[in-house]
From TrEMBL:
Signal peptide: none annotated. GO terms for molecular function: kinase activity. This is Carbohydrate kinase. Residues 282-428 form the Carbohydrate kinase FGGY C-terminal domain. GO terms for biological process: carbohydrate metabolic process. Residues 1-235 form the Carbohydrate kinase FGGY N-terminal domain. The keyword Flavoprotein does not apply. It comes from Planotetraspora mira. Belongs to the FGGY kinase family. Pfam families: FGGY_C, FGGY_N. Keywords: Kinase, Transferase.
Amino acid sequence: MIVGVDVGTSVTKAVAFTMDGEVAAVEAHPTALGHPAPGQVEQDAEQVVTSVGNVLAGLGVQRPRAVGITGQGDGLWPLDAAGSPTAPAVSWMDGRAGEVVDAWMADGTFETLFRRTGNAPFPGAGAPLLAWLDRFRPGVLDRTATAAHCKDMVMQRLTGVRCTDPSDASNLFTDPRTGLRDHTLVDLCDLGHRADLLPPVADMPVGELQAAVGGLPAGLPVSAGPYDLPACAVGAGVARPGDGLLIIGTTLACEVQVDRLDLSGEPAGQTLLYGGPGGAGGWLRAMPAMTGTAALDWVLRLVGARHDELDGLLAQSPPGANGVRFLPYLSPGGERAPFVDPGVRGRLDGLELARTRADVVRAACEGLAFAARHCFEAAGLTGEVAACGGGTGSEAWLQVFADVLGRPLRVARGPEVGARGAALVAARRFGIELDESEWTRSTRWYEPGHDYEDGYRRYQADVTALRSSM
């Protein structure tokens, strides 16, 4: 077997895969998010490491051929030389660096960073968080040896290897053409004196367990990366330029494989170095919106509905939600894709006494689908779309996505597509032969039906009006 570990924002999961891609066992363990101040979101790195050991133990697999690790991207995980935390990790959901991003937008730093790296800084990204800590918590950085990413923290603790992979490095001062750090950008952000905190970049981060962990023996081969967005693309079989992946999770992540760099247009999203299925290479143009299922969860709580009622509620309200419209920008950090605006906030419009909770829920599902189309258009989608994530459990919502996107939607082989991608990458790195087409085959298809063009144009007009009013 091969084990894939996915260290998510609120849950760590491990999956044991047989050599033909079947799931033999799945184990999950929750991790907590801390909120020390309004708009701030932190995690305890020690708790995350413990969760990894717990899920590995829970699998009951004593000697897999390899372990592949992926996890949440962005954020900042400050570590000492031994890989232990020097302060709580700052989550990608954190909004404390909003003023840093605002200042960079005003003085041109934001534009320069995007045109040189293809990555638009947002408050929860590594660069503005590093700048914020340097300004307001310099003591934390003074005792820090590595400004790490989540999966790299886990890798260092398990194997002693201190490095990051090209996908996480893409988001932190890296030239996407060469894969090398651009230290002129570090200096541009007044962080030259902190450059030694950036971990080295390895094309294939690999190591061995230093000690037994979760029942797995010391010496077991371990690989790290890519982080969760590209890992899901690998696990879903996104293999051709123009093809896309829709991750319906906490964030509504939309990404498209591209074979040429285009850093024109409104600065937003991410450009990630990508080794796709078969190691095809190229880049992922990713638009990971801050909105996602968390926004739908909020609406369901608002109207007093359960998740298992979603399909029934969608059936009770027609396309267009009887005029109710929802702009799903509820994150305290604003939005990062397909535009960056730390101050943007959501709206629920078109309410009247005749409207029902089903109309509100449908408006939320349609608003999130419109946001996905907005992201895909910015990312350059021209091919097919695969889908994964918790939101794929709703048949009716998947149909809304297919309708709004106006193209067929295929559901990737699950469960845990990110862990599947991490396992596939581990197999490549350690020379384990697999049938990747079988590992990444689709399980369901949805054909577009209802025409949402008018609704999408209204959504675009609403977004433009909202941004101009902020």
